[in-house]
Amino acid sequence: MNLEAFHALISRPVVYLPAIGVTLLALLIAKKPWTAAYIGLMPLINWSFAAVRTYPIPEALGGGQLQPLAIVTGLVLVVRDFAQREIGHRVLAAMLIGLLFSTMTSWVVVVLASGAAFLISETVDWAVYTFTKRPLSQRIMISSALSAPLDQTVFIWLASFVVPGIFAWGTVITGIASKLLGAAVVAYAIHRREQGLSLARVVGKSARNERRKAAAGTINAVSVATLVVLLLQPMALQRSPPGAAVTVALMAFVALQAMLHYILGRVED
């Protein structure tokens, strides 16, 4: 079996979905939800590069294409920071596992470009997060401010060798802005918590638990509804759901279940 045939084999959903699913489930059982989210987001984002529609950016704004899920990439940089809090320097191994899974869900060239960009930006992110002795919210923004421009520029530049015309400053700048926006939202929420302004510090333990249980119930309902709408309903109508819908449904279900288990794990005794 040559390399092309092997990649075609592992790129089939029946192969990569169980592999990714079992890995994420094992991490959830081991109570490592942030590591599971970090590993799971990488193949999802690389898959979206080819599967999700992009929108043209006016030439006056730099040209290129706007990727709607670029903001999720910014959240990956933040999730990586939380994963490092969970498993320490082994987060570098988690990054390699995520890139390995990306080879199953994406074009090889996208994975290579993404891998190079991740290795550069994540190394910077890891170094800043590890050696900067500042509050968590500040470390998130500092590491994202340094790693996001590197990640976006290197990725688009490498991808331009096989996708002519993709490198445009509009694409680079909007991608960086989206990533920083995602990081800023999380950093602001953490800053409020650090300052004692979050609701969890105002209400009593009982109220916190009720809110967490309610949130978990809502997330569980959304995850089940996602499966029903994108996967089970077409099958019930004797229609074969598109491959993209199957991928999105299963990945969304796993991600939402990871979030649910994390919230339930924070319910206080």
Q: Can you tag this structure with a few keywords?
A:
269 residues; mainly alpha; single chain; 10 helices; 2 domains; 77% helix; 2 strands
Summarize the structure.
By secondary structure, the chain is mainly α. Strands 1-2 form a two-stranded antiparallel ribbon.
Task: Provide mean pLDDT, rounded.
Answer: 75
Counting structural domains, the number is 2
In helices, the fraction of residues equals over 70%
> What is the count of β-strands?
2
Stretches where pLDDT falls below 50 for ≥5 residues? none
Major sheet summary line: 2 strands, antiparallel
* Radius of gyration, CA atoms, in whole angstroms: 19 Å
Structural class: mainly alpha
Percent of sequence in beta strands: under 5%
Tertiary shape: globular
Q: Care to describe what's here?
A:
The structure is a single chain. The chain has 269 residues and is mainly alpha-helical. It has two domains: 3-197, no CATH class; 204-265. 77% of the residues lie in helices and 1% in strands. Strands 1-2 form a two-stranded antiparallel ribbon. A hairpin with an 8-residue loop joins strand 1 and strand 2. Helix 2 (13-29) runs parallel beside helix 10 and helix 4 crosses helix 8. It is globular. The protein starts with a helix and ends with a helix. The mean pLDDT is 75.
Topology:
Layout: H1 3-10, H2 13-29, H3 33-51, E1 55-56, E2 65-66, H4 70-87, H5 91-105, H6 108-131, H7 136-159, H8 169-194, H9 205-236, H10 243-265
Antiparallel strand pairs: 1-2
Helix pairs in contact: 2-3, 2-10, 3-4, 3-5, 3-10, 4-6, 4-7, 4-8, 5-6, 6-7, 7-8, 9-10
